[in-house]
Write a structure and sequence with these properties.
27% of the residues lie in helices and 31% in strands. With 278 residues, the chain is an alpha/beta fold. The protein has two domains: 7-55; 63-276, 3-Layer(aba) Sandwich (Rossmann fold), CATH 3.40.50.150. Helix 1 runs parallel beside helix 2 (92-99) and helix 5 crosses helix 6. The relative contact order is 0.14.
Amino acid sequence: MNFFRKRSLLHEGRQWAVLDRVRSPYGILMVIQREERSIQRRRLLNDELIQNTYDPRLCKSLSTFTGALVGLARAYTARVKSALCLGVGAGMVPRQLAADGAAVDAVEINPHITRVAKEWFDFDPARMNLVHAEGRAFAEESLAEYDLIVLDVFLGGAAPLHFFTREAAEIFHGRLRPEGVLVVNTFGEFDPRQREMSASFHKTLRMVFGGASVGAHASGRGNVFHVAVRGRDLELLHSPDFSGEHPDIQFELQMMWEGRREFDSAKGEVLSDAMLGG
């Protein structure tokens, strides 16, 4: 049977119903769904990489990284009046920030994924300023300043390196208001290569923002969340509260919060655009 006509998909050892398939310039998008423990799980895949898992009955994300990004932003930012989200995916993070009352610029390179997010994941572009553009270029060309920047960009199984160099960090630093916060999702603990990359990115952020202004959290499940603040030490401003997140992910979110990561200063190297090649 033609791949685009299949109505089910074997994914993570289980059968999922296929709700939608879309070809895009950045890979094949799929929306799949299954019932598990009385929870309806709807998942967005981009070339089999999970973009988000969603409970359409509760209208809440089942992906820990969503709650982690929003939770860290709330904990370390005095007040999020304005936010720049680089990478939209299923739209959960910009949606939550907009619901908090922030003016959100949401930048996504792939217009097909935002169409899918709107149709299947309750994403409402009218609640924010949605821009289809390359994220680093948008930030570099923008004149706006933000209380918060959320970086959550992936292509295939990795994040594009040009978002993680010293030059990129300087762009993001320049787009933040004084005491503004940058929160970044990475695949930082899945294997030795990615752990090395995490150490390098941490070192890069320390060079741009200053050592006392940078930190990281992780739950031990693979993702590492880097945080950097402009012009002050990284200090808790609000106690984290995950009670509004899906009950299935609240425990792991608490593990993420308690899982502060320290990096050996002897490991890693400052990343630069010169490493990108042609």
